[in-house]
Amino acid sequence: MPLEAPEPQAIVIFGATGDLARKKIFPALYHLACRDLLPERHAIVGSGSRDWDDAALRERAEAAIHENCRTDLDREVLGGLLGSMAYVPVDARDPAAFERLGERLDELDRELRLEGRRLYYLATPPSLFAPFAEGLTAAGQATPESRIVVEKPFGDSLEGARELTRRIHAGFDESRLFRIDHYLGKETVQNIVVFRFANALFERVWNRDAIDHLQLTVAEEIGVEGRADYYDASGAIRDLLQNHMLQVLAFVTMEPPRSLEAEAFRDEKVKLLCAIRPLDPDRVVLGQYEGYREAPGVARGSTTETFVAAELRIDNWRWDGVPVYLRHGKRLPRRATEITVRFREPPSYLFGELGIGPLPADHLTIRIQPDEGISLAFQAKVPGPGYELTTVRMVFDYEQTFMHQPAEAYERLLHDAMDGDHTLFTRADGVERAWQIVEPALEHPGDVHLYGPGTWGPAAADELIAPRRWHLH
């Protein structure tokens, strides 16, 4: 069903002076406004440590929207959006600042009849998630009508995740806590559920009987520019595999939910995560691109991994015996996020009589970025006498089919958080299970192999998947 505008509310952005707000949140709010998907009555309150006023925030937001707008700019919509913005400086260590914020929100609430509904968005460094949540709670701003959005990473370990949840739950229970993972807001990821469960053709072969293995690659061309302090303390496993990659894998491999309601959906995701064996450190390859240690903010002699490849096993009826290969790295040849479903090779006796074979296996590719879409590669006869076979592709491209680019992930996720829909957000038990899966690799890391920038990572990653090979190579 089409999306509708949420109920009237205030949207409070902590970290409004930062890069996430500039690149993602302000543009997403603008595009939601263009589609009439912001609340009819709303206020947008930016907050940060800088001593700005309302005009400075509006100037910052306008520049961000100009820079990141993906459509022709609608001046009327932009003017209305900027007019709804206000700024209140808040330092997470200053209780009085939260009191001042509360006073401003109360004024806006009375003026706009918002009925106490507030969405607090923590677009801040992870170290400030708990202090901001606790500051709101201590100031009486964690009201029953309010919700809170937290960016990843959610903790830096299993115990860290549990502690963060405990501190936020002091004011915001699980029903009002939205852990955002922007990969789940991407149209192609959401379409996995439709592709699987609305098409009997594919769901009937989506199992160990027909599938040889699964691959998920998240490749980045860039290094750690601008994020070295955070990244050097985290690494590729914490930064991406533990969250984005396991969440996407859950969409690909989970059982059909009993309904599309949020809890039914999240129940099946958690069941799937619980079926994944914790990583075997012997089946994990770590790498670091040459030159990483020279980046500003990186410790000399750092052994932080910028590349990880891992083999997973899922212990359930559907996926027993089917290996899953995950790969992520920085400074790889190109930016791409793809899921590859590799089917089993067909029997070769029929065409083997003609000297053809072994036949390559069919494979399905789901492209999450760039150029979102799905393609199916299979065998076909080359026109002409006799039997000559070649691989051909059927391709579904989002932009070509629907004549426009898919909406940005943050648009859908911001809307759903305002609307109180948890479907695309992670739950506490799912976050904890994801940490349990990766902890063996974090506690017992293997050697970190050097690899050249612009390559597909260390040779050990190819050895991990052998005799198979990576689809992107």
Topology:
Layout: E1 9-14, H1 19-34, E2 42-47, H2 54-68, H3 75-83, E3 85-87, H4 95-112, E4 118-122, H5 129-138, E5 146-150, H6 158-169, E6 177-179, H7 187-197, H8 200-203, E7 211-219, H9 228-253, H10 262-275, E8 284-289, E9 307-312, E10 324-329, E11 336-343, H11 349-352, E12 363-369, E13 373-381, E14 389-397, H12 398-402, H13 409-419, H14 428-443, E15 448-451, H15 459-465
Parallel strand pairs: 1-2, 1-4, 2-3, 4-5, 5-6, 7-10, 8-15
Antiparallel strand pairs: 7-11, 8-9, 9-10, 11-12, 12-13, 13-14
Question: Can you tell me about this structure?
Answer:
With 473 residues, this protein is of the alpha/beta class. The chain folds into two domains: 9-151, NAD(P)-binding Rossmann-like Domain (Rossmann fold, 3-Layer(aba) Sandwich); 184-252 and 276-413 and 427-465, Dihydrodipicolinate Reductase, domain 2, CATH 3.30.360.10. Helix content is 38%, strand content 19%. It is built from 15 helices and 15 strands. The strands form two sheets. The chain has a nine-stranded mixed sheet with strand order 14-13-12-11-7-10-9-8-15, with helices on both faces. β4 (118-122), α5 and β5 (146-150) form a beta-alpha-beta unit. The longest helix has 26 residues, at 228-253. It is globular, with a radius of gyration of 24 Å.
